[in-house]
Design a protein that fits this description.
By secondary structure, the chain is mainly alpha-helical. 57% of the residues lie in helices and 3% in strands.
Length: 131
């Protein structure tokens, strides 16, 4: 069994964490859906460090969603007992800077990002409200 398959239940658990607010009332906001979906593409095209720098920046004024919650969700996944590669108090960006040459950490982050993307597919997006 591939790691990604094992990480999907962890991703679902993290997404349902009420403190994050990514999934509300069993639905995922389409903005978070877009953030999570584009995170992987950004990893491939820009690399891990530039992607984390971009996503660690807070919410845009034009949306209610906060893209900095994506690295937080990844942190929670990496801290879970099932993955357990990230057990300290640093934020993910700081940890990546500290352990920049750690290929195992980079691979786990990529696998968690993929699991997170697959996990969001289990949630519907809210229906647009007709005025």
């Amino acid at each position: 069994m591939r790691n990604i398959e094992k990480y999907i239940p962890v991703a679902i658990q993290v997404l349902e964490d009420n403190r994050l607010g990514i999934v509300k009332n069993g639905e995922i906001d389409k903005t978070y859906n877009g953030y999570i979906s584009s995170f992987g593409a950004s990893l491939i095209s820009s690399g891990l460090l530039p992607t984390l720098i971009f996503y660690s920046k807070g919410a845009e004024q034009t949306t209610n969603a906060d893209r900095s919650l994506i690295p937080v969700a990844l942190e929670k996944m990496l801290q879970s007992p099932e993955i357990g590669i990230f057990n300290n108090e640093q934020h993910l960006l700081e940890e990546v800077i500290t352990r920049y040459n750690d290929e195992c950490l980079k691979k786990k982050i990529q696998e968690c990002a993929i699991a997170l993307k697959l996990a969001i597919r289990t949630y519907p997006t809210p229906k647009p409200k007709n005025d």
